[in-house]
Amino acid sequence: MLDTYRDLLARSEAQQETRPSPALADKEARQHFARLQRHLARQFEQVFPHTHAPRTVVVVPSLSLDPAELSKIAGAHHYEERMLCLLMLLRMPRTRVVYVTSQPIAPTIIDYYLHLLPGIPTSHARQRLTMLSCHDASLVPLTQKILARPRLLRRIRDELAGCEYAHMTCFNASVLERTLALALDIPLYATDPALAHLGTKSGSREIFREAGISLLDGYENLYDEEDLVGALTDLKRRTPDLRKAVVKLNEGFSGEGNALFSYEDAPSGAALAAWVGQVLPHRLRFESATETWEPFRDKFAVMGGIVEVFLEGAQKCSPSAQCRIDPLGQAVAISTHDQVLGGSSGQIFLGCTFPADPAYRLAIQEAGMRVAEVLRQRGVLGRFGVDFISVPHDDGWTHYAIEINLRKGGTTHPFLMLQFLIDGEYDPATGNYYTPAGQPRYYYASDNLLREAYKGLTPEDLIDLAVYHDLHFHGATQQGVVFHLIGALSEFGKLGVLCIGDSPARARALYRHTVDVLDQETR
Predict the structure, then answer these.
(1) CATH code matching the domain that covers 439-523, chosen among 3.40.630, 3.30.70, 3.30.1370, 2.60.40
(2) 142, 146, 147, 151: CA torsion to nearest 10
(3) Hey, where are the domains in the chain?
(4) For residue 111, what are the CA distances in angstroms to 80, 96, 105, 287, 407?
(5) What is d(CA 355, CA 317) in angstroms, rounded to the nearest whole number?
(6) pTM for the whole thing?
(7) What tens digit of pLDDT does each residue of 207-263 get?
């Protein structure tokens, strides 16, 4: 495993040398990017509010993240499909979408999404959709693959020819995405990569302090084994009865970059530091089943990380608040969710429910908006989420902010699908989403419906089962089931499911029914 990670790291460093980052460092290029972003503000004022205004959206769902961390997630390259929810933009009759992927997406999957479009013939939508592929399944980020293919770049530019209003959207914004936006000469609806630190585990803790919201006791901006030993030692000395602490990679995601450290049998006094240093390599319990100490230590030295208290308790929840800072610099609350977590210590993201529990959803939303105000002042743009750990007390709940996700995370695509399908409105006063008739809607969503028995099911098989068992979204009732990550099903036995209902109980019942059907059909 260590050799594998070092090989990946060496390849990544070699690829970095071929990226056009020197041009980005150039003052002229930065000025050009700033001009493009100002044009996005004009689009937001003049085009975005009007559904019949002509525009082109270039969707680049690149997971421009650490390749070794990505390799921990089964079927990670199929996560480019999560942004297929943006095909729903084609419901606007003069909108064109250019969607680029690493590998071609099966036509059956595209048809599935286009048939969800309300009031738009599939043939009309298909004429305004261009699907492009790099035909490259390597661990290299999609955006880097595009930049390395001048003919593919030219094809994207050809799709933009004569289009006055266009912008690019992505999963997360790195230097690669900024480079691509410059190459295409269109604005990027995402945070400038120069601000990426704000979305790391260390940067999040700094923002939480500035926003004045509670966070767990801990240390950030750690970079080596000595830092880890010192932080774990000091944390225990400050809280003598502390039983566990969490070590997190700055750029880990979905909880896969986390590890749990136990203080069981720890000595007191001067012997503590030596004990922590001695037991650290074999005492850490990693959330990822494939992780071991040596590669984790090496990654920690590259990307840094944090140490913080592990909050224990029989009852604790993991809500999150989603906000958006638009191109005009205005911050709005979008939604709240309760996250469904798993893994050995309950830190891996499996799915979510919307909205968060009414006992605390407005408090979570308010804390998220305080973070949004700080990020707005820093120049952040686009959607982001703030994750919390919440514990009940006799007089209410206490919420501890955990991290900021400056990317389209696991709560983004299900909420976008809800918006596109229902065409209703989110009410920040209640935290509910209402249909045009004023009826609330709820959902249960999972990115990680995983069964060995599902392997071998093709997209066509899934559609057959959905038709036979009526696993659909029904426009008349505005309830039902929508699938995603369909491309990961046959090889990995993995599927995403969104279940929308008129009550939380109905949404969960739809999910259970869907799982029961798939289990019975593959038994």
Answers:
(1) 3.30.1370
(2) 170
(3) 2-190, 217-309, 439-523
(4) 17, 16, 11, 37, 27
(5) 13
(6) 0.89
(7) 999 999 999 999 999 999 999 999 999 999 999 999 999 999 998 876 678 999 999
